[in-house]
Design brief:
This protein has about 300 residues and is α+β, with helices and mostly antiparallel strands. It is built from 14 helices and 14 strands. It has 5 domains: about 50 residues; about 50 residues, Orthogonal Bundle (Arc Repressor Mutant, subunit A), CATH 1.10.10; about 50 residues, Multidrug-efflux Transporter Regulator, Chain: A, Domain 2, CATH 1.10.1660.10; about 45 residues; about 55 residues.
Length: about 300
């Protein structure tokens, strides 16, 4: 919907008065807008070149004198300041420190080149041929990631790939290294149900599972694009004894048991240094330590 407001403005490029329909309009025409944009680009380019020239002059200015700081020594030798400090740490360049200031004599620098060690040519590293591969389907099934996430991650980490007879093959070594944190863990299988496991064990449909966990607010976590639900909480909600002997409280469980707020529980946990761990975004608090803290007092 176009604006019907008429505003008298002055063009920032040509200076002519014109009628605008928005307060943000700065130019009277597309031509003036393009001229202004190009002028700003030229000005930015000129400033960039001037800055580069001034920096180049600073670097080319060889310091005079018999003693140099590490920065001046770096300019003299044409290397980086960090390289100079590494040489100082390895004892390649003699130096002296006077109340925190490091000084290097020009004579010691010149002496380094009097009897230099023999130059050893660096051997060119030969890339090892890649012979073990994953197909895209194998990666998705093994690590439980999506197709789009795989290609995005591979592009960011520059993972080698090739196409053979229409199939994309990925370097097995590089994929295993990049997705090391996606390997399956025993903890998930022991303490969490997958949706498929719930459906098989309790003869429920997926829709019934989602509705059940939502109504009873059962803790969940995501791993490899799959959703898992707390085995102990689910068994308790179904009215059966859990196979697991819980060794920790989740934050909602601790709040409900001791009738405290989240901030109060967190305060006691930090103050008394109670062991806690994190599984995703869920906090696990040591059950025995918390029960001992809030246990009724005893005498004798």
């Amino acid at each position: 919907m176009s604006s019907t407001i008429d505003i008298n403005k002055i063009c920032e490029w040509c200076g002519k008065e014109f009628i605008a329909h928005k307060c943000s309009t700065r130019f009277c025409s597309k031509r003036c807008s393009e001229h202004s944009y190009k002028a700003l680009r030229r000005q930015a380019h000129v400033e960039q070149e001037n800055h580069a020239t001034s920096e180049s002059k600073k670097q080319r200015c060889i310091p005079a004198g018999n003693y140099f700081s590490p920065r001046q020594c770096a300019v003299l030798l044409g290397i980086g300041k960090s390289s100079v400090y590494r040489c100082l740490a390895e004892g390649l360049i003699p130096c002296i420190r006077l109340k925190g200031k490091t000084l290097i004599s020009r004579a010691s620098i010149d002496k380094m080149f009097e009897n230099p060690p023999e130059y050893i040519k660096r051997e060119k590293k030969v890339a090892e041929p890649i012979e073990e591969f994953y197909t895209t389907k194998e990666i998705l099934e093994k690590f439980g990631i999506s197709n789009s996430w795989l290609f995005k991650m591979a592009k960011e980490r520059n993972i080698p790939k090739t196409v053979v007879r229409g199939k994309t093959l990925w370097s097995r070594k590089h994929i295993d290294k990049a997705l090391a944190d996606k390997q399956p863990t025993e903890m998930i299988a022991e303490e969490w149900y997958s949706v498929e496991e719930v459906c098989a064990k309790f003869n429920m449909s997926k829709e019934a599972v989602y509705r059940f966990v939502s109504e009873r607010k059962i803790s969940k976590r995501k791993d490899k694009c799959k959703v898992f639900y707390s085995r102990r909480q689910f068994d308790k909600a179904m009215g059966i004894e859990s196979e697991l002997e819980p060794e920790y409280y989740t934050m909602p469980e601790a709040m409900a048991r001791y009738n405290m707020t989240r901030n109060q529980i967190s305060h006691y946990v930090r103050t008394h240094d109670i062991t806690r761990s994190y599984e995703g975004r869920y906090v696990r608090i040591d059950r025995k330590a918390l029960d001992a803290l809030f246990a009724p007092p005893k005498i004798g």
